[in-house]
Amino acid sequence: MKEITYEELKALPEGSYALIDIRDEGLTAYGMMPGAINIYIEDLENNEKIAAISKDKKLIFYCEVGRMSRDIDDERPYLEGRDCYSLMDGYIGYVKAGMKSDVDKEAKKKKAEESIQKKFHKQLFSPFAKACKIYQLIQSGDHIAVCISGGKDSMLMAKLFQEIKKHRQVEFDLTFLVMDPGYNKENRELIESNAAALGIPITIFESTIFDAVDTIDKNPCYLCARMRRGYLYSRAQALGCNKIALGHHYDDVIETILMGMIHGAQIQTMMPKLHSTNFEGMELIRPLYFVRESDICAWRDYNDLHFLQCACHFTETCSTCHEDGTTSSKRLETKKLIAELKKTNPYVESNIFRSVENVNLDTVIEYKQHGVRHNFLDEY
């Protein structure tokens, strides 16, 4: 398929083309180009949305970085007689073009910070501070490695840490740590650009994790997540940190609980903090534990920010992964299930969250603690 650059696209007359986003829901949830319609690549043939577009309009297809859209066969019957193009560099190219044109980065940083202090204080800063207090996530003398993956959650977490440090209730140090496990050039540049625009002084180190898992057929996302965490612990410890902070939020917690039951036949939760078993003296904390994903998205959109979901170099050839190694398809399925249940029970999310705070061991047939299984018959 012919390619078109973002600059050439902008020069086209308004109304002369239609933008078609061919990414899956896991990626489009993180942002789409204005005016685009979403048709997943597997659903393109005989799609009613394409048929409804006037034939005198150019069809501009885009994916994440331009590979999948470029490979679309524009000689297929459903595109016959159409003037079709693939957007070079895809969605990331569009985002980068917008950042290059954003000359007043100081104003962007100021707006993002003021929105945390005022407009989104109740939705973002208050639950962040609450989790830090209730679960004792920040203590005097801590040196915390704020781990930034490039997504909306970790970038916001970094800004919230900067904000809470201004309050000086507890003296602690921060290192904003970014691991490059083999990012595409475009992905790494986007992370660096976002960090610069938001005033986050990142420390980047490199690893070869993506190459190591590239040939793994079974559970590559799980292995990648485990390896990434190990590398983060190791580098953070070498930098003098005693904690690493990850950007998992409230929705991640309830989805993990439900996925554990549905897919893992177990009841467990994503803990707000954990001692490392392999790195002595190190701890993992999750300060976004009470922050809702919808509020993170609202903050992102209010500030016209664009982030990565998954910076994996094979993002577009497999199901994109989550930071804990679960595939986006499973998470998306669970999100939809919770949304459906919420239609008839508005308290379903808080009930799932609180269910692991109200475990009655007298009614549990068997449970495991410190690796040892206990059965109700043991004390019956």
- Strand content bin: 5-15%
CATH topology-level name of the largest domain:
Rossmann fold
Give the SSE order as H and E letters. Answer: EHEHEHEHEHHHEHEHEHHEHEEHHHEE
Would you tell me the overall average pLDDT? Answer: 89
| Overall morphology | globular
Counting helices, strands and paired strands, the structural category is alpha/beta
| CATH H-level superfamily of the largest domain | HUPs
Note poorly predicted spans. 313-322
- Provide the number of structural domains: 2
Total strand count, please? Answer: 13
Report the span from N to C terminus: 70 Å
Q: Provide the gyration radius in Å.
A: 23 Å
Strand order of the largest sheet: 8-7-6-9-11-10
Oligomer: single chain
Any guess at the CATH architecture of the largest domain?
Answer: 3-Layer(aba) Sandwich
Number of helices: 15
CATH top level of the largest domain?
Alpha Beta
Helix content: 40-55%
Report the major sheet: 6 strands, mixed
Layout of secondary structure:
Layout: E1 3-4, H1 6-11, E2 17-21, H2 25-28, E3 37-38, H3 48-51, E4 58-62, H4 67-70, E5 84-87, H5 90-100, H6 105-117, H7 121-134, E6 143-147, H8 152-166, E7 173-180, H9 185-198, E8 202-206, H10 209-213, H11 220-238, E9 243-245, H12 250-264, E10 273-275, E11 283-285, H13 293-302, H14 328-342, H15 348-355, E12 366-369, E13 372-375
Parallel strand pairs: 1-5, 2-3, 2-4, 4-5, 6-7, 6-9, 7-8, 9-11
Antiparallel strand pairs: 10-11, 12-13
